Amino acid sequence: MKIFIDTAVLEEIKEVRDLGILDGVTTNPTLVSKTGKPWKEAILEILKEVPDKPVSVEVVATDTEGIKREAKELAKLGANVVVKIPCTEEGLRAVFELNAERAGVKTNVTLVFSPLQALLAAKVGATYVSPFIGRVDDISYDGLMVLEEIVEIYNLYGFETEIIAASIRHVDHVRRCAALGVDIATIPYKVIKQMYRHPLTERGLDLFLKDAKQAGISI
Ligand code: E4P
Question: Where does the secretion signal sit in this chain (predicted)?
Answer without folding.
Answer: none
